[in-house]
Each structure stands twice: as C-alpha cells, then as structure tokens.
C-alpha cells in the first residue's frame, strides 16, 4: 500500500510538471513564433518602396533617352523611350498590390501613379517637339536654293548657229572642210540671283520664329516636369518616413514580447526546479527498494543467460554425439547394401539405410531448436513418386505395429506413375509423426493410411492423406490444444505414454510452411482421423530417377593418392577406412590434431580429412599450423554442424572444402574427383636429394624484371641493406627479449623478400611475425630466428656470387 501511494504521488507530480511544461512551452512557443514572424517580415525587403524607386529610376532614364534623341536624332532612343514607358506602366499597375488596405498609402500610391503618368506625357510631348524639329531639318530648303543658284551661274544659255549651205557630193569628198566652231552667246542671270537671295532670307526668318516657339513650349514642359518630379520625390519621402515609423513600432512590440517571455521562463524554471526537487526526494526514498529489485532482476537475467548458454551447449553436444553413431549406421548400411546379395537381408538393410537417412534429416532440423522456432526451415523442390513414399511409411512401421498386433492398411487412389515436385523428406516426417502417435495411442484394431489427390489449376495437385486409427480418441475440449508445443493431455493414457509434446507441433508447422492444412476429427473410445492437405506441382517423369544406385567405376589414379585421416572416433575411422580400402586409396591415421601436424612435417599427403572436434589439438589449430607451413595442401573439414559462421572461420585460414557428417559414399567419391583438379593446378613438391637445391630463383626474378641488369642490381643493393638491418634488429631484440622488436623486424623484411621471390624466407618471416604477436615461448622463437638468419645468409651469398 505504501509503494502504491508513492507511485500515486510521483504520478501526480509528473502530471503537474508535464502540464506546466506543456503550458509554458505553448506560451513560449506562441510568443517566440510571433517574434520570429515579425523578424521575418521585417527582414524581408519593402517591395513597395523598391518598386517606387525602380519607377523613379526608369522615369529618369525616360528623360535621358529623350534628351539623347534630341541631341543625336538616333531612332534607337525612341525605341528605348517606348520600352521604358511600357515598363513604368506595368510597375505602376503592380504597385497597387503592395498598398496596405484602408490606409493613407492607397492615396499616396494613386498620386504617384498620376504624377508618373503626367511625367510620361510631358516627355512624350518633348519627344514629339524634337521629332518635328528633326523632320523639318531633313527637308533642307536652304540647300535646294543653293543648288538653284549654282545652276543659274554655270549653265550656258541656248546657242544659235547659222544654217550651212548645201554642198555637193564631190565637193564634200574632195573639198576642204571648215572645222572652226562658232562661240555660244551667254545670257545674264542677275535677276534670278536676287530672287534666290530673297527666298533664303525668308526661310531663315521662318526657322528662327519656329525655334523660338519650340523653345518656349519646351521650357513650359520642363517646368511642369520639375514640379511633377518634386511631388513624386515628396511622396516617396513620406512613404519612407511611414515605413521607418512602422519599423520602430514593431521593434518596441518585439522588445515587449521578449521581456514577457523572459518573465515566463523565469517563473517556469523556478516552478520546475521546485517540482523536480520534490520528485527527487520521493525518488530517493524509493531508491533502496528499486536497487533490491534490480539486483534480483540481474541475478534472474544472469541465470536465464546461463541457462540459454547451457541449453545451446547441450544441443550442440547432443547433436555432435548423435551424429557419430548415426554416421556409422548410415555409412556401414550403405556399404553392406553393396555387398549383400540375399534379397530378404537386402530389404531389411535398405529399411535400416532409409531410416538412418531419415534420422539424419531429423537430427539436422529438430535438434536445431532456434531454426524450428523462427520458421527458417528450407524446403527442397525435387521430383518424387508419392506412392513409393506412402509404401515406405507403411514398411517403416510394420515392426512396432506387429508388436502391438495392429493391422496397417494402405488405401491409395493416386496413380502409380504420378510424380510430384516438392520436399519428400518433410512429407515423410509429417506422416511418420502421425503414424507414431497413432500406434502409441492404439491398443487394438487397425491403422489406415488413405491417400487421394485433387486436380488444381495448371499443373498442380492437392495431396490429401488421412491417418485413421481405432485408438482412445481425443476429448473435444482438447482438440485445439494438441498442436501446441510441449503439451501433454491430462489422463491416465498420457501418464502411460510420456513424451516431449513436440511431435504434433512440428507437424503443424511443417504443414503450414508448405501452404497446407491439417484437420483432426476424434471420438473418445472410437478413434481419431488426421487429414493432411498439401499442394504440389506436377513433376517431370523424365527427370525422375529411381532410387537404385549405380556403381561408378573407380578411376585408376585413385591408387596414386595418399590421404591422412584425422579423427578420434573409431566409428568414423572405420567407415572411412572401409570405403578407401575398397577404392584402393592409400591412407594413414592420426587420432588428434597434434599427431597430424607432426606427420605432415615428414610426409606429403594429397588430402587431409580433418575432424573439427578432437582432444589434445582441435581441427582449427592443426589446420592453421599445417597451412602456415604449406598453403597448397588440401584440407577437408569433417563437421557435424552446419553453422555458417564456423565455415567462414575455417575458410579464412585456407580450408579447401567441407564434408558434413554423416555423408554418403558418393559425397566422398565426388570430393576425390574434385581433388584431381587441385592436384594438377598446384606446384609440384620439391625432390629431396643428398644436396638440397637452392630455394631461390634469380633467373626467374630477372625474367620478371625484363632482364634489366641495372634494375636488378638496384633491387639487390636495397635488399642487402634491408637484410643486414633485419639481422641486426633480430639479434638485438633476442638479446633484450623484445617480442615487439622481432615482429617489427620480420614485418619490414617480409615485403622485400617476397619481391625477390624468396618464398620460403618470406614464409618464415611471416611465421615469426605471427608467433611473436601471439606471445609464443622464447625457445620456439629463437629456433625460428636461427633458421631465418641461416636463410638470409644463404640468399646473400647467392646474390653476391650472381653479381660477381
């Protein structure tokens, strides 16, 4: 009750604090929003004033364009005048949108529009005045008069000649002709000159009068323009003053709101601190009890985690231990099937072989509890004949049925040549679970397996299988519970037949994952009918192969192989030796990883079959040491688990392949066939002679360098310097027992050694680098250092002789 009251107090105080925070937050948010909106509005430019100033600027450009036109007479300034006038008109129209409704700005903007239009009219009239003036100047009356005057002075008057006498033909041909020309008679034009002068005087007087009138009109228009411009500037100044006054008012309002927010924040902070202090007092009063509860929860969590880890270790151990005898049963029954000729014995062995095969699948899935719970089971898509599978289920249960004197009946309406495409192992698992339950809870009578099919759309069928027994039946109230996990129904019979309660739960999950249905009908004392419906696609009879195994011929090159079997289980070794002896493959045995490492130091093996879990030294450590010394050797890991993380871990160290226990003979056969490609592709082992051949190939190095002697000599000089430094560093680090110095020295020389194709020296340097980092014992390190020093000296001697 006391704890309940504390909870109520904390809840009420929390609600009060929440309400205060929400209320204050709302007020602060509202005030800040107003301030921010005001700042945003004031931060934006006053488009109204900007537009008015643009109009004023363009009006000035209008004046300039008209003045330039009057000075130059260039028509381009007329086009500019028109464009500017049009732009001013558009901006005057847009200016109305920026006026504040029901304010003096509307009248001011109207006045600006009126004055601007007046100014445009004024400058249009001035433009017209100058245009008329220019047009009159183009007529050039004085030039016309001047041309008349010049013509009168230069042009000769009409010349009159006397008519010549007629001359005869012979006189014209033979007589002397008169070539003299009579002079023209010039007429005086002084009266015309005086008349032209008089016209010139009149034209000058007329032009002077027109210029005087035009200047007077232009003066009046310019005076009007000045008055209009003054009025526009005055209105702009009034708008600027109004805007400045408005900004000052808004600033005062923002200052007031900021002060109000400050007061509210102070009040809110004080109230929040007070309420928080009260909550903290109540919290510390209840802290001791909460700590006790936390300690209890931590202990319970630790116990749960330990239990989960123990369960995981237990499942892994049981899985591994079960696979070992199952592997022996599966493999030996497969071998015996190939040797036995008696029909009855072969039939019994075939049942044992198929049962072991089915048990392998169950071990793979049912023991992996997390896979079942997360519904991560995979389903194959292979062709199978359902009639054979149904008959196999009946055959598998003949022995326990005869023991209870029960009759097993198969009623099959499915054609014998029907082929389905799906997962036969899962279907067999479902039917075996149902048959096992039927035999368990039936004391007399018979158990019937009824099978029929229903054609679906396309090439699909629905398989309908009924398992009917004459057993004790299931009460109606318990039918919904039988598919739950770890459920045992109450009653005397449940005490008689105990189990884990997982059988029907697994059946239900398998059916659901294949998009099927399972139904049950039962009467107490009469029996039970389980109906399973699973859809399958139609299989291809041409692809389907009968279960008969064809004996493949053993290649002759199998006899040239030399294998190493590394396993601590006698069952596994017996099976492997039996198969390899039949194929004529030579092999040797090792009981643990340490023996395997020692044997590979003295003998070459084409393939090592390495068990993962062994005493003394496990498969991972043994494979690591073997592959460090010889990365080209093929190691196949024999594993009883299918964890992806384990395979990834082993692949990183260079494991060639994996073989999951238990495995059929054909899997090992296919592995050896694949080994042929690896053997052909890897380098040939060195031949041991009385005098060891040098490991270094300077000719190959020169070939890689393109027979560039200068480059080769430069590489040699650099390597010699690096090698001498490495030897000095190794000696100094050995004296000081400095493992970090060893690692650093080996690391620095490893790359040059690799570039010089000193592969074995490179491998030893990397081994020293690795063992030094792993804190290896000093005797082992010193042995490795001596070997490296010897190889460096040999290589240096070879280089010196080559250069000489």
TrEMBL record:
Residues 186-252, 290-317 form a coiled coil. It catalyses: ATP + protein L-histidine = ADP + protein N-phospho-L-histidine. It is an enzyme of class 2 (transferase). The modification 4-aspartylphosphate is found at residue 611. Its main location: membrane. The chain crosses the membrane at residues 6-29, 265-284. Residues 562-676 form the Response regulatory domain. One of its GO terms (cellular component) is plasma membrane. It is found in: Cell inner membrane. It comes from the Bacteria. The modification Phosphohistidine is found at residue 747. The keyword Nucleotide-binding applies. PROSITE patterns: HIS_KIN, HPT, RESPONSE_REGULATORY. Residues 708-804 form the HPt domain. One of its GO terms (molecular function) is histidine phosphotransfer kinase activity. Residues 317-538 form the Histidine kinase domain. It is a multi-pass membrane protein. Its EC number is 2.7.13.3. Keywords: ATP-binding, Cell inner membrane, Cell membrane, Coiled coil, Kinase, Membrane, Nucleotide-binding, Phosphoprotein, Transferase, Transmembrane, Transmembrane helix. PANTHER family: OSMOSENSING HISTIDINE PROTEIN KINASE SLN1, TWO-COMPONENT HISTIDINE PROTEIN KINASE. This is histidine kinase. It comes from Mangrovibacterium diazotrophicum.
């Amino acid at each position: 009750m006391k704890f309940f009251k504390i909870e109520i107090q904390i809840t009420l105080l929390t609600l009060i604090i929440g309400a205060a925070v929400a209320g204050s937050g709302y007020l602060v948010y509202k005030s800040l929003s107003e301030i921010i909106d005001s700042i945003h509005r004031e931060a934006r430019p006053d488009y109204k004033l900007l537009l008015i100033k643009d109009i004023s600027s363009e009006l000035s450009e209008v004046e300039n364009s008209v003045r330039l036109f009057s000075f130059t007479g260039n028509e381009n300034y007329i086009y500019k005048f028109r464009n500017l006038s049009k732009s001013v008109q558009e901006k005057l129209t847009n200016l109305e949108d920026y006026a504040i409704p029901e304010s003096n700005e509307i009248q001011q903007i109207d006045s600006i529009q009126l004055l601007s239009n007046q100014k445009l009219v004024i400058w249009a009239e001035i433009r017209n005045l100058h245009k008329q003036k220019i047009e009159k100047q183009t007529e050039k009356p004085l030039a016309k008069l001047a041309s008349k005057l010049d013509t009168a002075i230069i042009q000769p008057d009409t010349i009159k000649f006397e008519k010549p006498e007629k001359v005869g033909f012979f006189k014209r041909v033979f007589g002397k002709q008169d070539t003299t020309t009579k002079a023209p008679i010039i007429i005086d034009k002084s009266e015309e000159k005086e008349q032209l002068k008089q016209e010139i005087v009149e034209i000058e007087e007329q032009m002077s009068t027109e210029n005087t009138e035009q200047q007077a009109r232009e003066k009046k228009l310019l005076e009007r323009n000045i008055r209009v411009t003054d009025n526009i500037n005055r209105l702009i100044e009034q708008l600027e003053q109004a805007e400045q006054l408005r900004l000052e008012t808004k600033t005062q309002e923002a200052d007031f709101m900021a002060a109000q927010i400050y007061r509210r924040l102070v009040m809110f902070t004080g109230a929040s601190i007070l309420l928080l202090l009260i909550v903290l007092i109540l919290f510390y009063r209840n802290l001791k009890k909460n700590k006790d509860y936390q300690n209890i929860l931590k202990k319970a969590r630790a116990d749960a985690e330990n239990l989960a880890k123990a369960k995981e270790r237990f499942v892994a151990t049981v899985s591994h231990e079960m696979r070992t005898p199952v592997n022996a049963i599966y493999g030996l029954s497969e071998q015996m099937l190939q040797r036995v000729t008696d029909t009855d014995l072969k039939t019994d062995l075939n049942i044992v072989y198929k049962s072991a095969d089915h048990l392998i699948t169950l071990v793979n899935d049912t023991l992996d509890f997390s896979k079942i719970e997360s519904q991560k089971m995979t389903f194959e898509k292979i062709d199978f004949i359902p009639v054979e599978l149904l008959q196999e289920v009946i055959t598998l249960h003949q022995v326990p049925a005869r023991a209870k004197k029960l009759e097993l009946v198969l009623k099959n309406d499915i054609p014998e040549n029907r082929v389905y495409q799906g997962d036969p192992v899962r279907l067999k698992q479902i039917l075996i679970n149902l048959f096992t339950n039927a035999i368990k809870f039936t004391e007399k009578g018979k158990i019937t397996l009824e099978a029929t099919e229903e054609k679906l759309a396309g090439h699909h069928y629905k398989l309908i299988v009924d398992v009917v027994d004459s057993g004790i039946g299931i009460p109606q109230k318990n039918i919904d519970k039988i598919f739950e996990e770890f459920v045992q129904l109450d009653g005397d019979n449940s005490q008689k037949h105990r189990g884990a309660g997982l059988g029907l739960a697994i059946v239900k999950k398998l059916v659901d994952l294949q998009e099927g249905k399972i139904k049950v009908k039962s009467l107490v004392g009469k029996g039970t009918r389980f109906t399973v419906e699973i859809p399958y696609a139609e299989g291809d009879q041409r692809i389907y192969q009968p279960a008969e195994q064809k004996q493949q011929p053993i290649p002759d090159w199998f006899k040239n192989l030399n294998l190493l079997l590394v396993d601590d289980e006698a069952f596994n070794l017996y099976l492997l030796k039996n198969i390899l002896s039949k194929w004529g493959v030579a092999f040797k045995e090792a009981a643990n990883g340490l023996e395997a490492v020692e044997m590979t130091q003295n003998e070459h093996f084409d393939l090592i079959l390495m068990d993962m879990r062994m005493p003394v030294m496990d498969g991972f450590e043994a494979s690591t040491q073997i592959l460090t010394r010889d990365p080209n050797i093929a190691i196949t890991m024999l594993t009883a688990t299918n964890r992806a993380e384990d395979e990834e871990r082993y692949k990183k160290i260079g494991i060639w392949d994996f073989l999951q226990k238990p495995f059929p003979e054909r899997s090992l056969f296919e592995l050896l066939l694949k080994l042929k490609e690896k053997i052909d592709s890897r380098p040939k082992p060195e031949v041991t002679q009385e005098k060891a051949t040098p490991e270094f190939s300077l000719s190959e190095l020169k070939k890689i360098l393109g027979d560039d002697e200068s480059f080769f000599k430069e590489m040699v000089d650099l390597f010699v310097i690096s090698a001498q430094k490495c030897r000095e560093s190794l000696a100094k680090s050995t004296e000081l027992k400095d493992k970090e110095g060893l690692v650093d020295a080996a690391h620095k020389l490893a790359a040059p050694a690799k570039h010089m194709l000193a592969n074995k020296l490179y491998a030893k340097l990397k081994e020293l680098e690795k063992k030094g980092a792993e804190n290896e014992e000093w005797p082992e390190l010193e042995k490795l250092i001596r070997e490296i020093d010897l190889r460096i000296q040999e290589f240096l001697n070879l280089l010196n002789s080559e250069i000489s």
